[in-house]
Amino acid sequence: MHAHRCAQVDEMTLDTYEVIALFAAVAAILMLGTTHLRLNLTFYCLHTLAIAAETAWISYLSGEPQHLIAAAGVLVKALGIPIFLGWIIRKLDVDSDVGTYLPAPLCMHLGIVMLGVSYLLSNQIPGVNGDDATFGATSAIGILFCGILLMLTRKVAISQIVGFLVIENGIYLFALTQTRGMPLIIEMGLLLEVLVAVMITGLLLFNIKKSFEHIDVTQLTELRDQ
Amino acid sequence: MKVLIVLGILPIVLAVLSLLIRNAPRLRLFVAVMHWVQLALSIWLLLPLLDGTVPAVVYSPGLMLDRLGAMFVILTVFVIASASTHAVCYFAEEDIHRHSEIPSSPMRNGVFYACLNIFMLAMMGVYFCDNLAYLWMCIEATTLSSAALVFHDRTKNALEATWKYLIICSVGIALALFGTVLVFTSSQRGAFPEGSLNVSELILRANKLDFVLLRLGFFFCLIGYGTKAGIFPMHSWLPDAHSEAPAPASAVLSGALLNCALYGIWRVYQVILAASPHGFVNHVVPILGTVTVVAASIFLVRQYSFKRMLAYSSIENVGLMLVAIGLGSGPLFFLQAVNHSCAKVALFLLSGNITAACGTKRLNKLHGILKTTPLWGGLLALATFAVTGAPPFGAFVSETAILITSANRNHWPLAVLLISAIAVSFIALCLHIGRILVGQAKPDCHPFQPMRSSIVPGVLVVGVLALGVLLRLDTLVKLP
């Protein structure tokens, strides 16, 4: 009986990197709950900072200092992208996104439910449920779901970009916790692609604002089969 | 490695020059000539691979080219060279008679050509990648660089199409990245403690990989790259982007980019085939391909826009290529790709001529092309037959080979569905194109340079005809 309880207590003890990963997931869920774009970007910044810390911590644990470069790359993403998108928000003069089908609080609770679902899912992945990687996978898949929810339920084009970035962070976190980091050149290439994608979509936003006088993507329905 | 540098240097130089040269007509001519130089260079450098004396060349870890890849590289450069040659007279006409209110500028032209060259580099890169992560990067780079091509007209519709294209494809490709990570994990849990993404290594030790993770990874890659290829439930961006881009860009998107995305699926599928040659996954791919063909043929029946109709025909051909991939036959995949690419490029270029001359893309407003410009009309009819797989043309041979092979593998229901869908789309396309060809000619249709603007489509149609005459069906069906 005693041994059993010990095992249970042991299971519930979280390592530092699991705490950081879960923090990133919580920040992503909080993003679902805010309709204010600037606050949303702040949460995105926190969420990505957590992932940068996670990268640094895991590179310290695994004794591979070259992954600190990857951590620095994520740091660039955590600071550069919110600044760039914040600049766009100021230029375009939009500040909130009321969402479409789901109200934000409901969406946040759905995000929490999805985190539970991703816990169940991550236990299904072979090799994960063995020792220590479950919470990493849980947060990663949870973040992935949050990003998808963000893209599906928001109206303003900026939220779509942020949703895509959250999805990408989830995938990155999954790679980080499950494989202890992909080869460095791949991570760098990925970072470059994401930065370029944000640049291009960001600049496209100005054109959308200029042509349509709004950036509500649900109203972009001119092209249809008719 | 030298080969890679030589092949990569010209597109980069051209991209830089495109932004520097301010004289638009001269730039167009220069780029078109240089693309043919690039084609000649590629053929010359890849000749040992093409004639089969060398099965595959490893340039460095993660970069490798086999015979199929080499043929696709040639096809890609050929498609781009054809499109940029036609673009010389297409854009010259557009400069004079623009239907849009936004004036053309040297800057816009420069951006178009710079992005076209980077796009070409990224598409060529796809075939050189042995490493699945590099492959992913190249395919994402194709999305980012081609966004400027779709946005070229700067209209509201072009903007909407570009936005949808970027967002839908980026999310799709993100899923493919997740799939790639899963394949990496499966290699780490299995044969490679360090992890590997090199397809050539993964194939060799495929039965030691963690199969559950590998299969999951393959499904994500199939959905991700499938979005980019326009496979049925994820195709919604494709008709928008292909119809709103200027004609040469639509031709490249349809004739070269779709092949790239399918090649991504083919690479991952090779690992799956090596790991379990007779598994459940091996039925999913041909079924998905067939569903795509059937759906596209149904969409083709009710069409209102000329270029959207051609885009749906591309989706149909993507389905056929996916069936060929599902049958595990690289040669059939390439054969269908080459026939579709040539015919579809000819069709898109002709559609560009006609819509620019008549000022509309609506099918119900285009009539009597045979009377106004018999040359365009005749080529349009021939190219339509070529793309739908009517007998003397190459697509007939490749489609028949795909049908016979799938029947030989006991995929009878699929073969029957494919035949009916191909028949439906043949009738639908011929009816729509027929309405464009005959009838009362519109008075406000001003054809431009009918001879010069027919050269490239004409050569392509003759090429597909030659393929159809030269290819022997009986040898193809026996292919592995």
Q: Mind summarizing the main beta sheet of chain A?
A: none
**Unreliable runs of chain B:** none
Helix content of chain A: over 70%
Report the largest inter-chain contact.
Answer: A-B, 36 and 46 residues
Kindly state the mean pLDDT of chain B as a whole number? 89
Describe the structure.
The complex is a heterodimer of chains A (226) and B (480). With 226 residues, chain A is an all-alpha fold. Chain A has eight helices and no strands. Chain A has helices spanning 2-12, 16-33, 37-61, 67-92, 104-124, 134-153, 157-179, 184-212. In chain A, helix 2 (16-33) packs antiparallel against helix 3 and helix 4 packs parallel to helix 8 (184-212). Chain A is globular, with a radius of gyration of 19 Å. The N and C termini of chain A lie far apart (70 Å). The relative contact order of chain A is 0.14. Mean pLDDT of chain A is 83; it is low at 1-10. Chain B is mainly alpha-helical. Chain B has 20 helices and two strands. In chain B, helix 7 packs across helix 10 (237-244). Chain B has a domain at 283-480. A two-stranded antiparallel sheet of chain B has the order 1-2. In chain B, a hairpin with a 2-residue loop joins strand 1 and strand 2 (63-66). Chain B is 76% helix and 2% strand. The longest helix of chain B has 34 residues, at 156-189. The A-B interface holds A 125-127, 144, 151, 157, 160, 164, 167-168, 171, 174-175, 178-179, 182-183, 186, 189-190, 193, 196-197, 200-201, 204, 207-208, 211-212, 217, 220, 222-223, 225-226 and B 131, 133-134, 137, 140-141, 144, 147, 151, 154, 156-157, 159-164, 166-167, 170-171, 174, 177-178, 181, 184-185, 188-189, 195, 197, 210, 212-213, 216, 239-240, 243-244, 299, 302-305, 308.
